[in-house]
């Protein structure tokens, strides 16, 4: 510690420990909101934007509340092993909840990727065309499979949140 800093430290501590007279303290006026005008974040249906399915897909609703990205979970990517091919959906494809929106093939097996909700495919993740193994590196982030326009965001309410999904995979492993 420098000599200058060590000489000011005791003086600063004494200054901060002094009590100011109440007249020097500015009193804040309480703010009142009309009843019912303030919403808690926990009451919003979009407070948890990422949801999970029993079949190990995830969906993350965008801030606009209309589009969402879909992919496979880390658990699914680990279970599949080295991914060698990803079938992406065609733009404009109409899908219902629990219908295939793509497929993932690995050295171990192949699996359909089911849409958690109904909607219209906006685009597939073209990065996966050339680099299917990328899904093993970033399954729940940059390696999403499809982006869809969601027909009814309320359908996400029937899906798992992160804590419930973790319990689901723990029960599945036992």
From TrEMBL:
<dbReference type="InterPro" id="IPR002930">
    <property type="entry name" value="GCV_H"/>
</dbReference>
<feature type="domain" description="Lipoyl-binding">
    <location>
        <begin position="67"/>
        <end position="149"/>
    </location>
</feature>
<protein>
    <recommendedName>
        <fullName>Glycine cleavage system H protein</fullName>
    </recommendedName>
</protein>
<dbReference type="InterPro" id="IPR003016">
    <property type="entry name" value="2-oxoA_DH_lipoyl-BS"/>
</dbReference>
<dbReference type="GO" id="GO:0005739">
    <property type="term" value="C:mitochondrion"/>
</dbReference>
<comment type="subunit">
    <text>The glycine cleavage system is composed of four proteins: P, T, L and H.</text>
</comment>
<dbReference type="InterPro" id="IPR000089">
    <property type="entry name" value="Biotin_lipoyl"/>
</dbReference>
<dbReference type="GO" id="GO:0019464">
    <property type="term" value="P:glycine decarboxylation via glycine cleavage system"/>
</dbReference>
<dbReference type="InterPro" id="IPR011053">
    <property type="entry name" value="Single_hybrid_motif"/>
</dbReference>
<dbReference type="InterPro" id="IPR017453">
    <property type="entry name" value="GCV_H_sub"/>
</dbReference>
<comment type="similarity">
    <text>Belongs to the GcvH family.</text>
</comment>
<dbReference type="GO" id="GO:0009249">
    <property type="term" value="P:protein lipoylation"/>
</dbReference>
<keyword id="KW-0809">Transit peptide</keyword>
<dbReference type="Pfam" id="PF01597">
    <property type="entry name" value="GCV_H"/>
</dbReference>
<keyword id="KW-0496">Mitochondrion</keyword>
<keyword id="KW-0450">Lipoyl</keyword>
<dbReference type="InterPro" id="IPR033753">
    <property type="entry name" value="GCV_H/Fam206"/>
</dbReference>
<feature type="modified residue" description="N6-lipoyllysine">
    <location>
        <position position="108"/>
    </location>
</feature>
<comment type="function">
    <text>The H protein shuttles the methylamine group of glycine from the P protein to the T protein.</text>
</comment>
<dbReference type="GO" id="GO:0005960">
    <property type="term" value="C:glycine cleavage complex"/>
</dbReference>
């Amino acid at each position: 510690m420098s000599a200058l800093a060590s000489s000011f430290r005791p003086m600063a501590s004494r200054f901060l420990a002094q009590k100011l007279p109440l007249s020097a303290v500015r009193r804040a006026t309480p703010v009142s909101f009309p009843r019912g005008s303030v919403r808690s974040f926990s009451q919003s249906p979009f407070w948890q934007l990422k949801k999970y399915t029993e079949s190990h897909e995830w969906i993350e609703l965008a801030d606009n509340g209309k589009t969402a990205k879909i992919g496979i979970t880390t658990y699914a990517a680990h279970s599949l092993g080295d991914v060698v091919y990803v079938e992406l959906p065609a733009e404009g494809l109409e899908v219902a909840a629990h219908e295939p929106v793509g497929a993932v093939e690995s050295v171990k097996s192949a699996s359909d990727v089911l849409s958690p909700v109904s909607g219209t495919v906006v685009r597939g993740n073209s990065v996966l065309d050339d680099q299917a193994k990328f899904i093993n590196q970033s399954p729940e982030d940059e390696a999403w499979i499809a982006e869809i326009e969601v027909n009814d965001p309320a359908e996400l309410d029937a899906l798992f949140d992160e804590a419930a999904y973790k319990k689901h995979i723990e029960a599945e492993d036992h």
